[in-house]
């Protein structure tokens, strides 16, 4: 069972006691975020002349705006990861088919060797020449297939890294928490299966729940 934590934080110059199942560090981050939003709003013209209720409403609107923007970016990031996972799944299927083809080629080579050994000297020599030609062709085909697969894997990794970097740079403040939780999953995306996506979905839902709880606690504090 999770332990409920109670932490004193400083919000808008006032000491406030926050409680929740999150870590004290997380509650401090929530307080820091609130102070930042209050500081931003205080720069607005006429803010100091507003009533307390109006200030609270304006603060709640800004927090809600940040939440929905972060939620939208999280959903976009998840869609990007699902697309990359689908593409990498197809690549793994191609690799599996290639392995089957290679095993088949090995069997053909072995059969060619046996037939060459069982034949007469002239046939054996002709078979060796044909075998060598076939071997070279198979090796060239194998090298070509491996190069194509390596190039494709490299391209997917580069595209994924570039897209992840672009999203994180554009929304660094809103997605910092999400980036820390999903960085390992992004790096291992090509090697993991759909179970990882389900785990990512669960983490996203937990994050949304934490944000919702934080907003509820904030509303309680501001009442």
Automatic annotation (TrEMBL):
InterPro entries: Bac_CellDiv_Activator, Cell_div_ZapA-like, Cell_div_ZapA-like_sf. Residues 109-141, 202-223 are annotated as: Disordered. One of its GO terms (cellular component) is cytosol. It comes from the Bacteria. It is found in: Cytoplasm. GO terms for biological process: division septum assembly; FtsZ-dependent cytokinesis; septin ring assembly. The keyword Phosphoprotein does not apply. Residues 214-223 have a biased composition (Acidic residues). Keywords: Cell cycle, Cell division, Cytoplasm, Septation. Signal peptide: none annotated. Homodimer. Interacts with FtsZ. Activator of cell division through the inhibition of FtsZ GTPase activity, therefore promoting FtsZ assembly into bundles of protofilaments necessary for the formation of the division Z ring. It is recruited early at mid-cell but it is not essential for cell division. This is Cell division protein ZapA. It comes from Candidatus Fusicatenibacter merdavium. The lineage of its organism: Bacteria, Bacillati, Bacillota, Clostridia, Lachnospirales.
């Amino acid at each position: 069972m999770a332990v409920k934590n109670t932490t004193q934080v400083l919000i808008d110059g006032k000491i406030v006691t926050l409680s929740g199942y999150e870590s004290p560090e997380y509650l401090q981050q929530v307080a820091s975020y609130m102070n930042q939003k209050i500081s931003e709003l205080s720069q607005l013209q006429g803010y100091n002349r507003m009533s307390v209720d109006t200030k609270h409403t304006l603060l709640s609107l800004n927090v809600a705006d940040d939440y929905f923007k972060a939620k939208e970016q999280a959903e976009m990031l998840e869609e990007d990861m699902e697309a990359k996972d689908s593409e990498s799944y197809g690549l793994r299927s191609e690799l599996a088919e290639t392995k089957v083809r290679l095993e088949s080629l090995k069997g053909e080579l072995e059969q060619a060797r046996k037939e060459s050994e069982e034949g007469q000297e002239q046939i054996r020599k002709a078979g060796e020449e044909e075998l060598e030609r076939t071997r070279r062709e198979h090796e060239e085909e194998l090298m070509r297939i491996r190069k194509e697969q390596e190039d494709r894997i490299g391209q997917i990794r580069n595209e994924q890294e570039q897209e992840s970097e672009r999203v994180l740079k554009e929304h660094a403040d809103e997605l910092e928490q999400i980036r820390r939780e999903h960085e390992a999953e992004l790096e291992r995306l090509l090697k993991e299966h759909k179970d990882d996506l389900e785990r990512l979905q669960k983490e996203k839902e937990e994050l949304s729940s934490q944000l919702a709880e934080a907003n509820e606690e904030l509303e309680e504090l501001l009442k």
